[in-house]
Write a structure and sequence with these properties.
six-stranded mixed beta sheet, YaeB-like fold, 2 domains, alpha+beta, 24% helix, 4 helices
Amino acid sequence: MQQAYGHPPRSCETVSAPGAQGCPCFGRRQPSSAAGSRRRRWDPRSVAETHAVYYRDISGVEPVNDFIESLSTKRAAKIDDHVEEHLNGRPPEAPPPAFPVTSQIHGELRELRVRFANTRYRLLYQRSDNLVVLLHAFEKDTGAVPEADKRLAERRMQDFKARMDAERRVPPRAAGKDAPPPSRRSG
């Protein structure tokens, strides 16, 4: 069911704002007859599911997406299927997927484990509210995740948070395309 404002019910909370009109969370204007003296504000708790996105650096590059696109079609599809199945569409309060699908690396940093034949791929990710930010991907050939890969993912998450929390955001946006992109989704 859609409200007149173009988004699902309860995706905004009503707050008092004398004379205010419109829904700032989507930039659409309410009809003045429906607006009255109430303004709506987006409530992140109302988003019902997690949503994976690629980290995008300051120059607009999405390193994880680039890594996946460099792989064969079958390998990329396997990784995309894991992202879709285990990271997208989870309730916000749900715990992370259990081992051996994912495991904790350090703090809130986690790895999604994907195996294709004898090759092991790892996607390092971290949650930011309902977003699952895919920070780094690599082919794993050691017992533990190398420290350099952990530090790189942590730096990217710091950059993501700083750019997303900035008072005035400067393009390109830190949250990149949806993961997996529609052009690669199997179906």
